[in-house]
Amino acid sequence: MNSSNFGLTNETKPSLGNMVCFSHLRWDFVYQRPQHLLSRAARDYRVWYFEEPIFVAGAQPRLDIRRSVEDVHVVVPVLSGPTEPASTDPVLTKLIDEFVAALLTGPITLWYYTPMALPFTRQIEPAVCVFDNMDELSTFMAAPPRMAALERELLNRADIVFTGGQSLFESKRGRHANVHAFPSSVDKAHFAASRLMPANCEPPDQRSLTRPRIGFFGVIDERLDLDLLDQAACMRPDWSFAVIGPVVKNPGSLPVRPNLHWLGSKRYQNLPSYLSGWDVGIMPFALNEATRFISPTKTPEFLAAGVPVVSTAIVDVVRPYGELGLVEIASSPGDFVSKIDKCLARSRQPWLRDVDRFLAELSWDRTWGEMRSLIKGVGGKQTPLKSIATAGEPTHV
Asked: pTM for the complete prediction?
């Protein structure tokens, strides 16, 4: 098999090599840490982003490849099934081996978001192996039983480990000799646009909501305290609560109230227009095993948008945001509502000055630049490629 089997054409763009990422998240699901980092990595590397398989009855095993607008090659294994991992792992191993043999020349950097990819990628010999530990996946609802064992193996294999927050860093630093904390960063310019948007730019599905408006955006799963949200909406029936994001677990458990508005998923590009119409942002996270190590990306995004924030006592929000007075921390439903009242009543300008001072040195560009330097330090000098196949429209292997 060669690159022509992939329906790809040659390109002469220089590169540090190939970065092959294995993730538990779909590229087009929610624009978050992987998208921010790997879209920047694509300026230096050929980035191949492997999603989890999709299953199509009777399908011949193949890789569907498309090139995203961020210049990342999104690779989706298509398998017949579904079947158990014991059956799919050998098929995925064969597909990965053919992919590496056909397309990849020059140094390979492996970048893992999920240890569940190890069973079909152990055979690859990379120049550098990176584990970007953005979440403690083993604590999530319905986590596979072998997740913890595979994470131990990945920690043994990785040359360098990045963590998505300080809490994860403290958890992992005793388990690897080369761990670095990179908490959530922010695209300031993107979210700061919220501060200047006129009212007539608000999206139609939000425009009719009465003020004050209290908003949340993010994935809706076991990390969100739905009971807290329900109680807050009950205590303040004159407030409009707007909730944006995909519901990925237990959709039947969503509370229903006249002032609680589930607006569904929105594109990352459109978030500033929604935030521009919010008076207070909220992060009503449950305090459980799934949230013990989270470092919400939305914290600095709310701040960049100029939206005051009230959160439950997530450790990586309390430190540093709560301690610096940038985010209000609440300990109960009543306290949560009181802290929202406080945000509604106070002048924003002194708070915004403190926010902008804190955010001044924070950016995904800076985060990626520091990561890139650390990776190059581990792998030594990586030889630029003269050419490599690349993808345009979706193709099939």
From this structure: 0.90
